[in-house]
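Quick one, tokens below. Sequence please?
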């Protein structure tokens, strides 16, 4: 059997794994969910969940991957009788996530171009229109949406074709540090704007948002827990096998426990940094702008850059470029999760690597789903969505609100928390947590947190996961689900 080509260095692995974790979920999801869910309360709950669920599932996935040296599907097959199909759940959810992730990634590329247009006063800039009008126009322009979506899909494919060490590691090792620098530049600019401090209060002062009428009422604790939990899962790229896949390429001498911890911490830090950039900017320059949904990233932020004066387009380009980088380093991990399976299979059957052909075939399917999401334009174009016709127009539940939400509900709402839950049940009760200990203690490393890991993976994590799953289902299916 041919040798599997993996990461060249631990730094490269970390950048790729952090790259997978850091994405639209951090830059866009985290700030607005934190804001809408009581700010500081959300933050504390998020941190607790990251420690008792995030770290546990992250370490579990990396260990499963490295032990079996295989992608998600084969890994579960090798390890378990009862859970051998869980890998398929992961690969299927990768498809659904990719569909809308690439569409949104395409929107971000469009916004880099738009700001460049503003910089050189070209016709493809905003042409004096407000952020809302530009975005509305873009959503109903189906051809443009599809083109940018497909450009994003194509970039993802080309990097994955280059393989893990050649494509993914190289891109992330440059892209991640660059992203961080761009983020710091944006934060410094934003925090020196007048009134930016209101944004900090919104994020960090408990009760401030309600007292000042920014949100209507404080959310209940259960819904904060399930929102924070869902966000944490998506943000850390766990629950569907992406980290199993990356772990499978990691050298046995590296310390799994330490790597898992670093990934969780970095991801959380960058989410906080993104919050420090986006939220204060909105309070300083677009105080009436929406704080949630796609409009935060595409309408509110564009208004912010339009109001910065002549340097606006430059910051616009830097900011959206940063988001594009973050999104690409995440989408490649999603595509790799699928491609790794086929590459493994081909190698087992002695057919050679075949990475390029499998990347292409997988990408074609992703592109089809992505085109559907782009044509729909977040529901602007009246494209038929499954089940939607069953509801009155003012009573449509989130899960079939538009194609993006439909795919998001299937993947983020159901498959991922379920995948995470099943994984902890497998590790805790079928194979036993010792599997993770043995894998972590390869080549003389010590697993310091084993006692903690064992207790969490058996009891605490599955319980939290079940709660999160329940909360997500309730959120997405609304009145349909009691
Ligand atoms: N974590 C990424 C984000 O925050 C999205 C992502 C990439 C992801 N790979 C994943 C989510 C695998 C779940 C599973 O935007």
């Amino acid at each position: 059997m041919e040798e599997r080509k993996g990461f060249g260095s631990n730094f490269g692995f970390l950048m790729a794994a952090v790259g997978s974790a850091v994405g639209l979920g951090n830059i866009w999801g985290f700030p607005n969910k934190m804001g809408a869910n009581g700010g500081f309360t959300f933050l504390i709950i998020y941190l607790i969940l990251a420690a008792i669920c995030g770290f546990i599932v992250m370490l579990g996935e990396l260990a499963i991957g490295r032990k079996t040296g295989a992608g998600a599907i084969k890994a579960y097959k090798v390890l378990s009788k009862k859970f051998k199909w869980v890998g398929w759940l992961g690969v299927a959810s990768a498809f659904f996530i990719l569909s809308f992730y690439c569409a949104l990634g395409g929107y971000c590329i469009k916004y880099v171009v738009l700001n460049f247009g503003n910089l050189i006063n070209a016709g493809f800039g905003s042409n004096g229109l407000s952020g809302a009008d530009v975005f509305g126009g873009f959503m109903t322009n189906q051809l443009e949406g599809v083109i940018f979506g497909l450009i994003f899909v194509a970039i993802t494919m080309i990097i994955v074709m280059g393989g893990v060490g050649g494509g993914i590691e190289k891109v992330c090792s440059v892209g991640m540090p660059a992203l961080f620098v761009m983020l710091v530049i944006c934060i410094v600019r934003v925090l020196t704007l007048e009134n930016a401090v209101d944004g900090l209060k919104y994020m960090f002062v408990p009760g401030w948002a309600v007292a000042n009428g920014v949100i209507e009422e404080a959310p209940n604790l259960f819904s904060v827990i399930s929102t924070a939990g869902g966000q944490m899962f998506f943000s850390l790229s766990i629950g569907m096998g992406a980290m199993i896949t990356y772990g499978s390429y990691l050298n046995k001498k590296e310390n799994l426990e330490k790597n898992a911890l670093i990934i969780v911490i970095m991801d959380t830090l960058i989410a906080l940094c993104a919050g420090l950039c986006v939220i204060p900017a909105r309070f300083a320059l677009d105080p009436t702008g929406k704080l949630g949904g796609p409009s935060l990233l595409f309408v509110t932020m564009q208004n912010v850059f339009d109001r910065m004066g002549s340097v606006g387009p430059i910051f616009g380009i830097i900011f959206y470029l940063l988001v594009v980088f973050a999104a690409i380093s995440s989408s490649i991990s999603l595509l790799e999760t699928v491609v790794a399976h086929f590459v493994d299979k081909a190698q087992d059957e002695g057919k050679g690597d075949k990475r390029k052909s499998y990347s292409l075939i997988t990408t074609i399917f992703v592109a089809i789903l992505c085109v559907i999401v782009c044509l729909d334009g977040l529901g602007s174009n009246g494209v038929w969505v499954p089940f939607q016709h069953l509801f009155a127009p003012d009573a449509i539940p989130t899960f079939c609100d538009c194609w993006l939400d439909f795919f998001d509900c299937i993947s983020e709402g159901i498959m991922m928390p379920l995948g995470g839950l099943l994984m902890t049940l497998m590790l805790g009760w079928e194979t036993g947590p010792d599997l993770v200990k043995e894998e972590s203690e390869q080549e003389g490393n010590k697993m310091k947190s084993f006692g903690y890991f064992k207790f969490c993976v058996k009891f605490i994590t599955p319980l939290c996961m079940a709660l999160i799953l329940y909360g997500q289902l309730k959120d997405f299916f609304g009145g349909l689900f009691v």
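The chain has a mean pLDDT of 93. The pocket of tryptophan is lined by residues 20-21, 23-26, 97, 234-235, 237, 240, 242, 330, 333-334 (CB under 6 Å).
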